């Protein structure tokens, strides 16, 4: 069998396609993906074209070009471009959904304890404003999809109006059994909002067939689009409900029929160069073969997992299986006497950076610190060896 990680050939040499800062070992593509050079170049070209004649760009040219870029994204995601809107990131998309979904006093929104912290804040505020309740299901451990499905269904009541679900969780890096979950909620006629920034490119799925009412994502993660690029998908039956939290002109470009997207797509004068570079990002990731990208990233993530589990004497929450894990893994740190850290100043996260210029986040979940490792095409075994050596040096001081 081919060793997917032996690919040190030119096509997989990170220096060819990414300009990651000299001396830095970047293991955090899951939070902030570095933009590859061809995508940076595409963005710059659009930016220069716009700067050369902004009147032409905004009034005549770019509306059409953005539509073409969106059509390429829709084809990649396997959905209709009519149901898709470019938006800055998953956070903005989720805020639009929360501003659009009508909640009444006594309604319940079903949440779970693996959801992203900022998403929790968005729905806490929406529920408080409406007198609704955010119900949190605790999900663990994971051996079988029923370990996720059953506790969620158990938390459903006649007042449940909406479910918020990650496609791939952030702190625990777990792929949720999204198709099975969607089938259950469809049967109960409860709409679902999927928070999916990690799933784009990492997971093989058809957005149009998933049955989500709303899907929110950022594209700067695994798809390698520029920072500040995401999308909001809205199923046709929900489109008339969409409300823009921020108003601008709200009208279609001259000659184009009105759609649900009009209130959101023009939000004052914004440079759309990052959206226009999305087709290049798609071509870039596809040029390596999506299947190869997924399997290689998974293989490296499994090696990272084995190394970390042995070193920490703990276990990652989900089974080491492609149904549960993608190109990212999170392993709990063992209990420690060290005082609990503040956000972004975890002693291990800081120690990895200061000792060896390794970028890897320590996430806090279920009162436990988790070291999360992301494996994109520019990562290899050498990165894991450096991580292991550095972790050994930091033992007793940072974990
Ligand atoms: C699961 C999940 N949801 C939402 C977000 C927010 O993404 P962004 O910061 O690109 O808006 C993240 C970011 O890491 C995430 O992991």
Automatic annotation (TrEMBL):
InterPro entries: Aminotrans_V_dom, PyrdxlP-dep_Trfase, PyrdxlP-dep_Trfase_major, PyrdxlP-dep_Trfase_small
SUPFAM superfamilies in the cross-refs: PLP-dependent transferases
One Pfam match: Aminotran_5
Keywords, ordered alphabetically: Pyridoxal phosphate
Keyword field contains Nucleotide-binding: no
Domain Aminotransferase class V: 33-384
Protein name as catalogued: Aminotransferase class V domain-containing protein
Organism field: Planctopirus hydrillae
Higher taxonomy: Bacteria, Pseudomonadati, Planctomycetota, Planctomycetia, Planctomycetales
């Amino acid at each position: 069998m081919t060793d997917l990680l032996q690919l040190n050939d030119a096509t997989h040499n990170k220096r060819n396609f990414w300009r990651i800062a000299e001396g830095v070992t970047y293991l955090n593509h899951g939070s902030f993906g570095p933009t590859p050079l061809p995508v940076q170049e595409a963005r710059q070209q659009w930016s220069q074209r716009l700067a050369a004649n902004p009147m032409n760009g905004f009034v005549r040219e770019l509306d059409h070009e953005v539509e073409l870029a969106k059509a390429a994204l829709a084809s990649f995601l396997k959905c209709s471009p009519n149901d898709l809107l470019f938006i800055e990131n998953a956070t903005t998309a989720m805020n639009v959904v929360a501003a659009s979904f009508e909640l009444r006093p006594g309604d319940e929104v079903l949440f779970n304890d693996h959801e992203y912290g900022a998403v929790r804040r968005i729905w806490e505020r929406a529920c408080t404003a409406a007198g609704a309740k955010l119900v949190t299901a605790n999900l663990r451990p994971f051996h079988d999809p029923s370990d996720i499905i059953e506790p969620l269904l158990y938390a459903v009541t006649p007042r449940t109006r909406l479910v918020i679900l990650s496609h791939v969780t952030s702190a625990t890096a777990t792929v949720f059994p999204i198709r099975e979950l969607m089938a259950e909620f469809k049967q109960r006629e409860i709409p679902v909002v999927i928070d999916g920034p990690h799933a784009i490119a990492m997971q093989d799925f058809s957005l149009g067939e998933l049955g989500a009412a709303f899907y929110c994502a950022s594209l700067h993660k695994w798809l390698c689009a520029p920072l500040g690029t995401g999308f909001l998908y809205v199923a046709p039956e929900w489109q008339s409900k969409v409300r823009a939290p921020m108003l601008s002109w709200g009208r279609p470009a001259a000659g184009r029929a009105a759609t649900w997207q009009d209130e959101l797509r023009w939000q004052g004068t914004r440079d759309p160069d990052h959206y226009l570079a999305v087709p290049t990002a798609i071509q870039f990731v596809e040029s390596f073969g999506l299947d190869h990208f997924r399997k290689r990233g998974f293989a490296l993530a499994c090696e990272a997992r084995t190394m970390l589990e042995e070193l920490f004497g703990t276990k990652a929450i989900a089974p080491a299986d492609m149904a549960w894990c993608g190109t990212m893994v999170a392993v709990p740190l063992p209990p420690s006497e060290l005082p609990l850290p503040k956000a972004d100043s975890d002693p291990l996260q800081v120690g990895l950076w200061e000792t060896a210029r390794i970028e890897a986040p320590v996430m806090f979940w279920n009162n436990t610190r988790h070291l999360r490792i992301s494996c994109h095409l520019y990562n290899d075994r050498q990165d894991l060896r450096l991580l292991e050596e550095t972790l050994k040096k930091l033992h007793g001081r940072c974990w």
